[in-house]
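testing teh design pipeline on a random one, pls ignore if ur not involved
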C-alpha cells in the first residue's frame, strides 16, 4: 500500500495560518482527496503542556543548548501525535495537512545559534526527526510570508488589542525578525515554497492567499 503525502503550512505568528489551514482542508475534500488535518503543537497533550510552560517562560531554553532542548520538546509532541493518531491514515494513503511541523524548529530554534552553526543544525534536525524518530518527511512545505508589521496588526486584532496575551515569541519583535531571516534561509536550503501574503503594508485578501496555496497543493496531488 502506498503511503500518503504530507503537506505543511508554515509561517510566523499572525500570518493567518489557521484560516488558510482550514481552507486548504476544505479544498482537498472538494477535489476528492482523502485527507485529514493536524496541527502542532498539541497544547492539550502532556507534551504540549511542557511546550506551554516553555512559551510562558517557565523553562529557560536560551543559547546553543536551548535550541536543541526546545527542539526536542516540539519533536516529542509530533512523535506522540504521529504514532498515536495519524500514522494509520498516512500509511493508508491519506494526504496529511499539517499546521506547523519540524519546519517550525528550523525557524524558531535556529535563531538561538550563531550563523555559522545553522547549516549543521538543519542537518541535525532533519536526521533527528525524520531518521531517528521516523517522522514522515514533508512532500510540500508552504511558508506563508507575512511582513512583520502586518502580522503584528493581525495579532493585535486576534487578541482584541491586549498585548499581554502574546506569548514570549510574539512579544519579542527582534526575535520575530530573526525568525523570518531563519525561515528564508531554511526555505532556500530545503526547497520550501514561499507564499507571499501581503502587498505593501496590507495583508492580501484571504481568498487570494488561498488560491496560491490551492494551486501548489493541486500541483502536488496531480503530479507528485
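output:
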Amino acid at each position: 500500500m502506498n503511503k500518503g503525502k504530507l503537506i505543511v503550512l508554515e509561517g510566523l505568528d499572525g500570518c493567518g495560518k489557521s484560516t488558510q489551514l482550514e481552507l486548504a482542508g476544505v479544498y482537498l475534500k472538494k477535489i476528492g482527496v482523502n485527507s485529514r488535518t493536524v496541527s502542532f503543537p498539541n497544547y492539550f497533550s502532556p507534551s504540549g503542556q511542557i511546550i506551554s510552560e516553555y512559551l510562558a517562560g517557565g523553562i529557560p531554553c536560551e543559547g546553543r543548548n536551548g535550541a536543541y532542548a526546545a527542539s526536542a520538546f516540539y519533536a516529542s509532541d509530533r512523535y506522540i501525535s504521529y504514532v498515536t493518531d495519524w500514522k494509520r491514515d498516512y500509511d493508508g494513503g491519506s494526504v496529511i495537512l499539517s499546521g506547523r511541523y519540524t519546519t517550525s524548529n528550523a525557524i524558531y530554534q535556529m535563531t538561538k545559534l550563531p550563523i555559522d552553526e545553522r547549516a549543521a543544525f538543519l542537518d541535525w534536525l532533519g536526521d533527528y526527526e525524520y531518521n531517528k524518530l521516523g517522522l514522515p518527511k514533508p512532500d510540500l512545505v508552504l511558508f506563508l510570508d507575512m511582513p512583520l508589521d502586518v502580522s503584528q496588526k493581525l495579532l493585535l486584532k486576534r487578541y482584541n488589542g491586549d498585548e499581554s496575551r502574546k506569548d514570549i515569541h510574539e512579544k519579542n519583535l527582534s526575535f520575530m525578525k530573526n525568525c523570518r531571516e531563519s525561515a528564508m534561509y531554511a526555505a532556500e536550503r530545503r526547497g520550501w515554497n514561499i507564499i507571499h501574503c501581503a502587498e505593501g503594508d496590507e495583508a492580501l485578501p484571504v481568498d487570494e492567499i488561498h488560491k496560491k496555496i490551492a494551486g501548489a497543493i493541486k500541483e502536488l496531488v496531480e503530479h507528485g
